[in-house]
């Protein structure tokens, strides 16, 4: 019998092996570009990037990187170049305080563990699979029960991810100068600051943002699914963005679908992963519609109210998708979703239709204005508007007042061709 944790090891090795292939590919690509470049400024910038990104691993190097005990079970993902920087130990030699950084991160773990134990005792996942919840409880209870189950899942994941970050911190993995603006999974992003910092004599301030894998507050309290996902498993999000999303040449929507498909396949072959992950692109599409059509046209107070409502819907969507992620099997997942009427799938469709209707109304209104008025140019200083209409070959002038509540009010007008009257 294969141990259960073997799957986790395979998942991390998959990320590392594919990731190092792309690192080698990008190294070769940039070396070729440097040889062809004639612009000195661009060439210097590319050479600086190569200095802190290029890799030349041997087969044995790749083996050691893939099976490095740091992050081998629960992550986080880190690039081969980040691994090499840890092996060289420059940060440790320069006096980075790993103990202090670890203690600042680990103190929340007992709280997450306690919250998980308490909530799992009262709201176990197994109850969602039992006949009791479908026989003795109603629609509203089953709809609500997804929330504490997803809370259990979050607390367990938060505790595990934070502990894995602490292991990396104690190993000195992912320690870079704060001035280099490290990003989760990637490492330093400001190479110029990294270059200049190496020549300074004063003590360097380090952080471990490179192996920062979970932003608990952001995952829980950002108002949209898109923002919440960016705070969840951030190093793997970087891997998906850099090795899948950005390398595709399709439309944004199709790239999101393919990225979520790659994420589901990476998690495993259980159908629940696909039911969960492939729901995400449709939610993102609806969120983007409402952000453009509704939120951006609101004042600050209305935007705050909108964000709170959006946050509530986001957490319910996460709980809904989380049931598929946890139940795993297609029959149990669809049975549970069916018992609540596939509510959030239906909500996605309804909200999308409403967004299309709003967009249609706005488009028709804009078209009527354009057809009726032609092209209008407003001079903010003279308040003179020159309008060319379909019915009048000659231009007309309108003197308009200052905007009132975002609208122009005409106070006087004259036609140039009236001069002959």
Automatic annotation (TrEMBL):
One of its GO terms (cellular component) is membrane. One of its GO terms (biological process) is lipid modification. Belongs to the membrane-bound acyltransferase family. It is found in: Membrane. Its main location: membrane. One of its GO terms (molecular function) is lysophospholipid acyltransferase activity. The chain crosses the membrane at residues 106-127, 133-151, 158-176, 271-290, 311-330, 342-362. The keyword Methyltransferase does not apply. Keywords: Acyltransferase, Membrane, Transferase, Transmembrane, Transmembrane helix. This is Lysophospholipid acyltransferase 7. The keyword DNA repair does not apply. Pfam families: MBOAT. Signal peptide: none annotated. InterPro entries: LPLAT_7/PORCN-like (IPR049941), MBOAT_fam (IPR004299). It comes from Petrolisthes cinctipes. Residues 179-200 are annotated as: Disordered. Pathway: Lipid metabolism; phospholipid metabolism; Phospholipid metabolism. It is a multi-pass membrane protein.
